[in-house]
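Data availability (excerpt). The following record was deposited with the supplementary files.
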Amino acid sequence: MEGMESNERTLVSPVESDILDGLTDREREILKLIFDGRCSSEVAQTLKVSKRTVDFHLARAYVKLGVSNRFQAYKRAVELGIITM
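Predicted structure:
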């Protein structure tokens, strides 16, 4: 992307679009709460679900994002425009 700074995004590739479309609303919601600094237990209390349910959705989101931990998920979510810094 010549002439653009690395943190600017104007177009989403077809692969990135598939990732964005593949994330469920619940997965996005949980990711945003996690990125807000909450642990799985706090997210579970907020959403009135079990911690196991939160961890399940988080694991599915990791697979869809192609990552294996929260830091990588945050970085990928920023790249995809799911969240802003």
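Summary of structural features: The radius of gyration is 14 Å.
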